[in-house]
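Section 5: illustrative case.
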Protein backbone atom coordinates (compact mmCIF):
# COMPACT_ATOMS: atom_id res chain seq x y z
CA UNK A 1 0.00 0.00 0.00
CA UNK A 2 1.30 3.45 -0.88
CA UNK A 3 2.54 5.58 2.02
CA UNK A 4 0.37 8.70 1.90
CA UNK A 5 1.95 10.45 4.88
CA UNK A 6 3.20 14.00 4.20
CA UNK A 7 6.99 14.10 3.73
CA UNK A 8 7.58 15.63 7.17
CA UNK A 9 6.24 12.45 8.81
CA UNK A 10 8.31 10.02 6.76
CA UNK A 11 11.02 8.13 8.67
CA UNK A 12 14.10 10.33 8.86
CA UNK A 13 16.55 7.42 8.58
CA UNK A 14 16.57 3.95 7.08
CA UNK A 15 19.30 2.81 9.46
CA UNK A 16 18.39 0.34 12.14
CA UNK A 17 20.18 2.02 15.03
CA UNK A 18 19.14 1.99 18.66
CA UNK A 19 18.87 5.38 20.45
CA UNK A 20 22.03 4.42 22.41
CA UNK A 21 23.91 4.10 19.13
CA UNK A 22 22.91 7.60 18.09
CA UNK A 23 23.46 9.61 21.26
CA UNK A 24 25.74 8.45 24.05
CA UNK A 25 27.63 10.01 26.94
CA UNK A 26 31.07 10.51 25.45
CA UNK A 27 33.13 10.66 28.65
CA UNK A 28 31.89 7.53 30.42
CA UNK A 29 30.98 7.21 34.09
CA UNK A 30 32.23 3.61 34.11
CA UNK A 31 36.04 3.53 34.12
CA UNK A 32 36.02 0.09 32.46
CA UNK A 33 34.81 1.62 29.19
CA UNK A 34 38.30 3.11 28.70
CA UNK A 35 40.48 0.63 26.82
CA UNK A 36 44.15 0.63 27.90
CA UNK A 37 46.46 1.24 24.98
CA UNK A 38 49.89 2.00 26.48
CA UNK A 39 51.15 3.12 29.90
CA UNK A 40 49.00 6.16 30.85
CA UNK A 41 47.16 6.05 27.49
CA UNK A 42 43.55 4.89 26.97
CA UNK A 43 40.90 5.18 24.27
CA UNK A 44 37.14 5.17 24.54
CA UNK A 45 35.43 3.88 21.36
CA UNK A 46 32.47 5.90 20.12
CA UNK A 47 31.94 4.72 16.55
CA UNK A 48 33.91 1.93 14.87
CA UNK A 49 33.20 2.23 11.17
CA UNK A 50 34.06 -1.03 9.38
CA UNK A 51 32.51 0.15 6.09
CA UNK A 52 34.55 3.33 5.74
CA UNK A 53 37.64 1.94 7.52
CA UNK A 54 37.58 4.69 10.13
CA UNK A 55 36.82 5.24 13.78
CA UNK A 56 35.86 7.92 16.29
CA UNK A 57 37.19 7.72 19.81
CA UNK A 58 38.26 9.73 22.80
CA UNK A 59 41.94 9.53 23.62
CA UNK A 60 42.95 10.01 27.24
CA UNK A 61 46.58 10.53 28.17
CA UNK A 62 47.81 11.20 31.69
CA UNK A 63 51.09 12.73 32.71
CA UNK A 64 54.14 11.01 31.20
CA UNK A 65 51.99 9.08 28.71
CA UNK A 66 53.20 8.95 25.10
CA UNK A 67 51.41 7.84 21.95
CA UNK A 68 54.20 6.29 19.89
CA UNK A 69 55.44 7.88 16.69
CA UNK A 70 53.03 7.21 13.83
CA UNK A 71 52.20 8.28 10.30
CA UNK A 72 48.70 8.93 8.95
CA UNK A 73 47.89 7.87 5.36
CA UNK A 74 44.49 9.57 5.66
CA UNK A 75 43.16 12.68 7.43
CA UNK A 76 42.52 12.94 11.16
CA UNK A 77 40.26 15.48 12.88
CA UNK A 78 40.57 16.21 16.57
CA UNK A 79 38.81 18.32 19.19
CA UNK A 80 40.48 18.81 22.56
CA UNK A 81 37.97 18.37 25.38
CA UNK A 82 40.26 18.60 28.40
CA UNK A 83 43.87 19.47 29.20
CA UNK A 84 46.55 20.03 26.58
CA UNK A 85 49.04 18.04 24.51
CA UNK A 86 51.87 18.40 22.03
CA UNK A 87 53.69 16.58 19.31
CA UNK A 88 57.43 16.12 19.78
CA UNK A 89 57.81 17.07 16.09
CA UNK A 90 55.95 20.42 16.33
CA UNK A 91 56.09 23.60 18.38
CA UNK A 92 52.39 24.19 18.84
CA UNK A 93 50.27 23.08 21.80
CA UNK A 94 46.67 21.84 21.42
CA UNK A 95 44.53 23.00 24.33
CA UNK A 96 40.96 22.40 25.52
CA UNK A 97 38.61 23.88 22.94
CA UNK A 98 41.07 23.60 20.02
CA UNK A 99 40.37 21.82 16.74
CA UNK A 100 43.30 19.90 15.23
CA UNK A 101 43.66 18.72 11.62
CA UNK A 102 46.29 16.10 10.84
CA UNK A 103 46.80 15.93 7.07
CA UNK A 104 47.73 12.69 5.27
CA UNK A 105 51.48 12.06 5.39
CA UNK A 106 51.86 13.65 8.82
CA UNK A 107 54.17 11.77 11.20
CA UNK A 108 54.26 12.60 14.90
CA UNK A 109 54.55 11.50 18.52
CA UNK A 110 51.92 12.71 20.98
CA UNK A 111 52.76 13.58 24.57
CA UNK A 112 51.29 15.48 27.48
CA UNK A 113 53.42 18.33 28.91
CA UNK A 114 54.71 18.03 32.48
CA UNK A 115 52.28 20.58 33.92
CA UNK A 116 49.15 18.81 32.58
CA UNK A 117 47.60 16.03 34.69
CA UNK A 118 45.32 14.63 31.99
CA UNK A 119 44.13 15.34 28.47
CA UNK A 120 41.05 14.03 26.69
CA UNK A 121 40.65 14.58 22.94
CA UNK A 122 38.05 13.43 20.46
CA UNK A 123 39.64 12.03 17.29
CA UNK A 124 38.13 10.89 14.02
CA UNK A 125 40.74 8.71 12.31
CA UNK A 126 40.55 7.32 8.77
CA UNK A 127 42.52 4.40 7.38
CA UNK A 128 45.15 3.42 9.90
CA UNK A 129 47.78 4.52 12.34
CA UNK A 130 51.08 3.44 10.77
CA UNK A 131 53.59 3.19 13.61
CA UNK A 132 57.21 4.00 12.83
CA UNK A 133 60.49 4.24 14.72
CA UNK A 134 62.71 7.34 14.87
CA UNK A 135 64.04 6.53 11.36
CA UNK A 136 60.54 6.22 9.87
CA UNK A 137 60.80 2.42 9.68
CA UNK A 138 57.51 0.57 10.08
CA UNK A 139 56.93 -1.03 13.49
CA UNK A 140 53.19 -1.81 13.52
CA UNK A 141 49.73 -0.52 12.71
CA UNK A 142 46.23 -0.03 14.04
CA UNK A 143 43.02 0.09 12.03
CA UNK A 144 39.35 -0.15 12.89
CA UNK A 145 39.62 -3.94 13.07
CA UNK A 146 42.58 -4.02 15.48
CA UNK A 147 40.73 -1.42 17.58
CA UNK A 148 37.67 -3.69 17.72
CA UNK A 149 39.89 -6.62 18.75
CA UNK A 150 41.50 -4.55 21.52
CA UNK A 151 38.05 -3.55 22.79
CA UNK A 152 36.80 -7.13 22.70
CA UNK A 153 39.76 -8.41 24.73
CA UNK A 154 39.57 -5.61 27.28
CA UNK A 155 35.78 -5.76 27.75
CA UNK A 156 35.92 -9.54 28.17
CA UNK A 157 38.68 -9.22 30.78
CA UNK A 158 37.09 -6.35 32.76
CA UNK A 159 33.67 -7.99 33.05
CA UNK A 160 31.64 -5.85 30.64
CA UNK A 161 31.70 -8.77 28.19
CA UNK A 162 33.38 -9.03 24.78
CA UNK A 163 30.12 -8.12 23.03
CA UNK A 164 30.07 -4.73 24.79
CA UNK A 165 32.01 -3.36 21.80
CA UNK A 166 29.27 -4.36 19.34
CA UNK A 167 27.18 -1.26 20.13
CA UNK A 168 29.95 0.93 18.66
CA UNK A 169 30.47 -1.08 15.46
CA UNK A 170 28.81 -0.01 12.20
FE1 LIG B 1 48.23 11.25 14.97
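Designed sequence:
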Amino acid sequence: MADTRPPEYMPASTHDLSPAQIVLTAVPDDERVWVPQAPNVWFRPLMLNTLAGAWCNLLRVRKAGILSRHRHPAPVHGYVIKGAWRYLEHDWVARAGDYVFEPPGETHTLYVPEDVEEMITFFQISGCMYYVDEHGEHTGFEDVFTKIDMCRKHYAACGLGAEYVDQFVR
